[in-house]
Amino acid sequence: MSPAYTRRHLLRLGGTTLVVAGTTGFALPALAASAVTADLVVYGATSAGIVAAVQMRRMGRTAIVLEPGDHVGGLTTGGLGYTDSGTSASIGGIAGEFYRRVHARYHGNTVTPDSPMRLVFEPHVAAEVFDDLLAEEGVPVYLGVRLTSVTKTGNRITALTADNGQTFTGPMFVDATYEGDLMARAGVAYTVGREANTVYGETVNGVQLRNAHQFTLPVDPYVVPGNPASGILPGISTAPVAPNGTGDDRIQAYNFRMCLTRAADRIPFPKPAGYDPADYEILLRYVQAGFTGPFFTTQGVGNGKTDSNNHGAFSTDFIGANYTYPTAGHAARQSIVADHRTYQQGLMWFLANDPRLPATIRTATAAWGLAADEFTATGGWPPQLYVREARRMVSAYVMTERDCRGSVRAADSVGLASYTMDSHNCQRVVVNGVVKNEGDVQVGVPGPYPIAYRSIVPTEAQCANLFVPVCLSASHIAYGSIRMEPVFMILAQSAATAAKLALDAGGVPVQQVNVAALQTRLRQDGQHLQWPPVTPGEIILDNAAASVTRGGTWLTSTAIAGYYGVDYEHDGNTGKGVNRLRFTPSLPAAGPYAVSLRWTADPNRASNVPVDVVHSGGVTTRTVDQRTSGGQWVPLGTYTFAAGTAGSVLIRTDGTDGYVVADAARFVPA
User: Fold this and answer.
1) Percentage helix, strand, coil, to 5, in the chain?
2) Cα 146 from chain centroid?
3) How far is 483 from 90, CA to CA, in rounded Å?
4) Environment class of 38 (CB within 10 Å of its CB; exposed 0-12, middle 13-18, buried 19+)
5) Residues 67, 44 contacting (CB under 8 angstroms)
6) Which of 43, 292, 545, 591 is positioned for an S-S bond with 541, CB 3.0–4.6 A?
């Protein structure tokens, strides 16, 4: 057991270890019983699983975490110490608290909602922070509990049964695994692989033969160079490469995030049993063609240690070796994990020792080694395979590239994501007689974007009491942006909060939770639900708001990016002077408010849209140019309003020279 857990009481249950921290609300005999009940049963002790349970405890309910393996904290404690965050300021709630606690552990400062975050850290530090959270909130964590069956009554899960015969019951459940095992056993729809671009109107999904992490020098793919009849080298697919945008069942490559050091006590890279130099023949030929590295990243995380990841055309990603992993059973998965370990350990040994490589490469690699004080139970090697993507739920709302790019914005936001749309390579292929990688995509997003509540819950008919904050409903390429550890924590906190609200409402289906009430509580707990963050007292009226009134005919659209909410409206460039739309807020207090308007810009828009601001002093008319300044709040001025609904913003179409758009209006206390 890791030193991170020495402060907790360990209770052995047959082949299972139960980690009990602090006051749990359970007596130990109850936790050891053949049937254990909690308000929230979380499957998967990933960062998301921990945060879900902690949030439920903070809201006054009981929660337990079941972990099929023996590692707590997922990738966050498993080597991924150089956090992929995108816009770090968009990280709120317990996720933000976690990174503030990390900073405090390094610097000794007090943790407050405004204290600094540290997003780079050594694995053992992350483990200690999670240990503190679990201990403070009294969360029991069961280790080595593998799910064997799910019992449902109608559309509700009633019990999970583990391989040791123990059952876990409760009214609410969270699947926090990277694989979506609970979701699948509960009969929830899911997919594996890459959708075609045509499925969701995307541009970078499906097959993608691109230039990043690609061979930059020619490498012959055949066992005997130049002789296709001699066979293909290991790891190369012989299947023809489909056109870009074609869907398939391939998934992006996995690897281990190594914690390396140059310290004198470093552990030399081991030569694994089953090492086969043929596995690295492609790399050898690449080096012989002139490639000199780097062969892996050395991103520093503190105290001379790294979070070392894949880099370049041939590196730590074991491309093409994980296709069956998402839906495989335990034994098959363990075999795949072992194959990945053998491949990556073999790669490092090859780079440090193979005499066919230049001495400069061998010396540079051997200067690194595994950190002796990390992952001590596994010889310095990370215990957690980086499962970048496995099953993905298919629910009422599927997050897509359009969400990532901001061309659509989910109104039922329960958190933000902001990282690049990132897919690692999915296959190694032959193109025009040389080796190429296929599948790598690295396309940025314009800024933080909302993740829909509907994307973390199944459809009600399939399951009414389950949350899926990790294997959420998203296309392959959108998942590539969302699949970051801070986002998993954010969504898990939101899931647990929704679970509590569902219970408080008499156990309503999670799909029927009042989203407005959920968002209010999430904001109280420090979650960011829109970007830029909400200004205190701010009132935003989307075009879909109930208080919006219209004259004439208005058409909804999502054609141009940058709108607020789920769509915007336009006048069809007809009915000039007849079509008009009014935003009427309900202001809580009289006083001055800064008023802004939002639209989507395009050359076909009107450049002379009259906008009437109705305020306590009368009516002020402004003219806005909707051919520019799209996707942002455009100030109309500051005006004094009475409390209530006497004030408004009216968009008119009189004499306009193009399409007039109505998207949203904002009122901020001045």
Assistant:
1) 25, 25, 50
2) 24
3) 15
4) buried
5) yes
6) 545
Helix, strand or coil, per DSSP, at residue 199: helix
Q: Is 548 left (phi over 0), alpha (psi -120 to 50) or beta?
A: beta
| One-letter amino acid of 130 | F
Cα–Cα dist 98/310, whole Å: 26
Please tell me the predicted confidence (pLDDT) of residue 533.
78
Side-chain-facing half-sphere of 592: CA atoms under 13 Å: 6
Neighbouring residues of 524: CB distance < 8 A, sequence distance ≥ 6: none
E strands along 9-116, which residues?
9-13, 16-20, 35-37, 40-43, 63-67
The matching CATH number, chosen from 3.40.1260.10, 2.60.120.260, 3.40.630.30, 3.40.190.10, for 539-669 is 2.60.120.260
Q: Got the DSSP string for 581-620?
A: EEE---BSS-EEEEEEEE----TTB-S-EEEEEEETTEEE
CB atoms near residue 519 (< 10 Å): 21
Show the tokens assigned to 455. Answer: 């994307």
Reduced to 3 states, what is the DSSP secondary structure of residue 162? strand
CB 597 within 8 A of CB 634: yes
Would you give the DSSP letter of residue 533?
P
Distance CA 578, CA 652 (A): 8
Q: Which of 130, 103, 135, 146 is nearest to 49 (CA)?
A: 130
CA dihedral 372, 376, 380, 386 (to 10 degrees): -140
Phi, psi values for residue 250, rounded to 5° = -80, 150
pTM of the model as a whole: 0.82
Return phi, psi of residue 57, to 5°.
-65, -40
Contact 49, 63 (CB under 8 A): no
The residue ranges of every structural domain in the chain are 3-191+443-524, 260-378, 539-669
CA distance 473 to 466: 13
CB neighbours of 451 closer than 8 A, spacing ≥ 6?
Answer: 399, 403, 410, 413, 414, 415, 416, 417, 472, 482, 487, 491
Q: How far apart are CA 116 and CA 100, in angstroms?
A: 6
Q: Is 3-191+443-524 in CATH node 3.10.20.70?
A: no
| Predicted confidence (pLDDT) per residue in 102-115, tens digit | 999 999 989 998 89
Torsion sign (Cα): 495, 501, 504, 507 = negative
- Cα 522 → chain centroid: 18
Q: What is the DSSP string of 8-30?
A: SEEEEETTEEEEE-S--SS-HHH
- pLDDT tens-place string over residues 559-598: 887 788 778 999 999 999 999 999 999 999 999 999 999 9
Compute CA distances 212 → 96, 208, 438, 439, 551, whole Å.
31, 10, 9, 9, 51
User: Rounded to the nearest 5 degrees, what angle is found at the Cα of 450, between the Cα atoms of 664 and 613?
Assistant: 15
Cα separation of 420 and 422, whole Å?
Answer: 5
What stretches of 138-280 show up as alpha helix (H) in DSSP? 181-185, 197-200
As a whole-number percent, the residues of the chain with pLDDT over 90 amount to: 89
Separation between Cα atoms, residue 427 and residue 323, nearest integer Å: 10
Give yes or no on whether 3-191+443-524 and 539-669 have one common fold.
no
Nearest to 127 by CA among 4, 7, 18, 302: 4
